[in-house]
């Protein structure tokens, strides 16, 4: 069953990758987020990529900490699994599973841990929301740019939520 899950995730990742690059290979209108980014030059792109990966690393560290603070019997995934976000293009599909697993883990933890009694939303909407928006950001026009911007906003909201949860779980 585990091998089948990996095949499905890999297949979906390839489909997402093909859908993402196809418009840029066939369209005569190359407008979109990639055109905007390419206008800053190679050095600018390198800095932007470095900042992006650094931010993802800090986000993964917060997610890993969150899963570590959740009792092992309530976890739906291992804490280290969040680092799959770095496996491109596999991450476009895996991010959905990471968000679902973290949300479900938090929901299960809340049933047994009074520290989370005030939490009613476990981050599913913002987590899945930014995952969808990142895929839609590949659309090569203003819709893709808007989706990308919206995805960043949702991602930041989710990150702040995870930091809040971590603080709640750490307090005695």
Description of the structure:
By secondary structure, the protein is mainly alpha-helical. The protein has one domain (2-170). The protein contains six helices and no strands. The chain has helices at residues 2-26, 33-38, 41-69, 91-112, 124-136, 142-170. The radius of gyration is 18 Å and the shape is globular.
The arrangement of helices and strands along the chain is HHHHHH
Calculate Rg over CA atoms: 18 Å
The major sheet is characterized as:
none
Overall domain count: 1
| Helix-strand makeup class | mainly alpha
Number of helices: 6
Fraction in helix: over 70%
Shape from CA axes? globular
The strand count comes to 0
- Give the averaged pLDDT, no decimals: 86
Question: Per DSSP, what share of the residues sits in E-state strands of 2 or more residues?
Answer: under 5%
Task: Flag low-confidence runs.
Answer: none
The first-to-last residue Cα distance is: 40 Å
């Amino acid at each position: 069953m585990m091998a089948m899950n990996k095949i499905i995730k890999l297949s979906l990742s390839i489909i997402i990758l093909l859908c993402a690059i196809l418009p840029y290979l066939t369209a005569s209108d190359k407008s979109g987020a990639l055109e905007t980014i390419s206008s800053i030059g190679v050095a600018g792109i390198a800095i932007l990529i470095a900042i992006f990966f650094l931010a993802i690393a800090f986000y993964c560290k917060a997610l890993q900490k969150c899963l570590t603070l959740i009792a092992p019997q309530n976890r739906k995934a291992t804490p280290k699994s969040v680092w799959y976000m770095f496996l491109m293009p596999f991450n476009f599909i895996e991010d959905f599973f990471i968000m679902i697993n973290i949300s479900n883990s938090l929901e299960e933890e809340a049933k047994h841990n009074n520290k989370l009694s005030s939490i009613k939303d476990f981050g599913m909407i913002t987590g899945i929301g930014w995952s969808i928006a990142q895929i839609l950001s590949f659309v090569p026009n203003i819709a893709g740019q808007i989706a990308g911007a919206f995805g960043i906003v949702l991602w930041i909201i989710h990150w702040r939520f995870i930091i809040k949860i971590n603080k709640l779980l750490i307090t005695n």
